[in-house]
Amino acid sequence: MMEYKQLTADVQIPVLGLGTWQIGGRTEADYTDDEKNIKAITAAVQLGYTLIDTAESYADGHTEELVGKAIKGIDRKRLFIVSKVMSAHLAYKNVITAAKRSLERLQADYFDLYLIHFPNADIPLKETMRAMDHLVEKGLTRFIGVSNFSVKEMQEAQKYSKNKIVVNQVQYSLISRNKCTYGDCINMESEIIPYCQENNIIIMADRPLHKGILVEKNYQQLERLSKKYNKTKAQIALNWLISKKNIITMPMSTNSEHLKENLGVLGWRLDLEDLILLDNTVFEKE
Question: Which residue of 11, 62, 142, 152 could cross-link 29, Cys pair, CB 3.0 to 4.6 Å?
Fold first, then answer.
């Protein structure tokens, strides 16, 4: 059974979603495995992944197309669809155009959540947020949020928006605590996450297994806890995340066994002493 956290007073969001980065390509479209990818996304929904996170920049829009084909015929109300507008499209008209194009690719009438993928200092945030408000007013998205935003940037965005910013998606895992390995996002654990927890903003933890490194390397603490709880290292690392206030996550996989394994993080929690142990353990990338 899926678990949920409060997004707003009357809306919940799944604690575990399906990430789609690199499904159908990276920055350019790769059509090689389209049929396989569509089946994998559909299978994920059937397993219980109703939160799907994507972006217009993923595979130059092709990832959204694959998601759209995969969810066709599935009751839209069952799903929580998230997409993101790229930083180059943050001018008022461009935000609206980008959102409509994403919805066309997704074959959907609305997003559940639409995020600004990265901040762009060259485009006034006031203009961007006016466009985000417009999307809410026109019913093109239920909620709005940001991604890779600092506390200061979140505060500025909220100042210009009539609608609450309900999410900040940032890279966060046992390895990446205070510095992203892509983009310029820093101070996730020391500043961004505490601020979001205090202000009822959900953190969507991106790259929760640090591109598989947490599973592949022999980290002593993960090995020990894996044996203690009879869980995989991936399940320990993911459970550490969703045990935290206002944090959810969306690992990417098209492997059916990995998808099932990831669902094994639900229905239990690490003991407090083990959460503290992991909080205080430095997991080196190399």
Answer: 62
Q: Indicate which residues carry an active-site annotation.
A: 58
pTM (2 d.p.): 0.96
Residue 84 in contact with residue 115, Cβ under 8 Å? yes
Q: In whole angstroms, how far apart are CA 56 and each of 21, 104, 116?
A: 10, 11, 11
How far is CA 160 from each of CA 58, 93, 125, 131, rounded to the nearest angstrom? 28, 17, 8, 11
Bridge pairing between strands 80-85 and 111-116:
parallel
CA atoms of 89 and 123, how far apart (whole Å):
9
CA 119 from centroid of its chain's CA atoms: 16
In tens, the pLDDT along 225-272 reads: 999 999 999 999 999 999 999 999 999 999 999 999 999 999 999 999
Share of the chain above pLDDT 90, in %: 97
- Paired with 143 in beta bridges are 113
Q: Are 146 and 165 in contact (CB under 8 A)?
A: yes
Q: How far is CA 1 from CA 17, 64, 107, in A?
A: 13, 26, 27
The two tokens of residue 185 are 């996002």
For residue 52, give the nearest of 25, 87, 21 by alpha carbon.
Answer: 21
Q: Domains of the chain (ranges plus CATH)?
A: 4-216+247-258 (3.20.20.100)
Q: Measure Cα distances from 196 to 146, 148, 167, 245, 278 in Å.
A: 12, 13, 8, 9, 21
What is the percent of the chain where pLDDT is above 70? Answer: 100
Q: Are strands 111-116 and 202-206 parallel, antiparallel or unpaired?
A: unpaired
